[in-house]
Amino acid sequence: MFATRAAPAVRASRMPLAVVAATAVAGASLYTQPSVHLDQAVNTAGADAVSRPTTIAGTFTTPSERSFIMIKPDGVNRQIVGKIISRFEERGYKLVAIKSVLPSTELAREHYSDLASKPFFGSLIKYLTSGTPVIAMVWEGKDVIRQGRNMVGATNPLQALPGSIRGDYAVSVGRNIIHASDGFESATKEIGLWFGEKEIASYTPAAWDQVMADN
Ligand code: IDP
Ligand code: MG
């Protein structure tokens, strides 16, 4: 749970200004927001609002749900940023925040903190901070966390189905183009880490009600 974790050791002096601001704002929200595990959230999806906490990732399973999606340096380097953004737009999701970031080592390490013990962690961080920017985004809409994972495809492109982003554009697990939050708790952490509340827009696309409606 975020409330019991130590604050990230992020040194502001080595971070881009936007990230400094995001981290400063996020620091407060990230570790004080109620968190919920994905399984728990799935089980309570039909229950009342009290059991569906709202964080910077919105409210799980509702149109306010948000996911952190990041085009990694290989996606930027291969100049397919527009194609990837189009997929989320065409699906019906709403882009509520976007920025190009040269992540600091500290930011990259915090983002992937759950993988710190993996043998590839060092090279993953080196790659993310190699000097080619990442495109950090927040997308909003019903089920965007789980649907975002479907659209991105399996971690290893060998298992990623054709039609998914990794299944269409990637070959190697170490160069799999894109990141997507894997649950409500990680979306809450990641959006709070990369963005401040004030960087996230509130607006209603023309077709929003059509796309989000249930009978
Ligand atoms: P995800 O990106 O699908 O959520 P994670 O297991 O969270 O997958 O791993 C984060 C990233 O670390 C992957 O997207 C990939 O770039 C890299 N990675 C994961 N497993 C390996 C591996 O076995 N070798 C090299 N890189 C890996
Ligand atoms: Mg992951």
TrEMBL record:
Check the record and name the Pfam families matching this protein. Answer: NDK (PF00334)
Q: Which residues bind ATP?
A: K72, F120, R149, T155, R166, N176
The yes or no answer to whether the keyword Transferase is present is yes
Entry EC number(s): 2.7.4.6
Q: Where is the Nucleoside diphosphate kinase-like domain?
A: 64-202
- For the protein in the UniProt heading, the enzyme class is transferase
CDD domains tied to this protein: NDPk_I (cd04413)
Recorded GO molecular functions are: nucleoside diphosphate kinase activity
Q: In its UniProt entry, what is this protein called?
A: Nucleoside diphosphate kinase
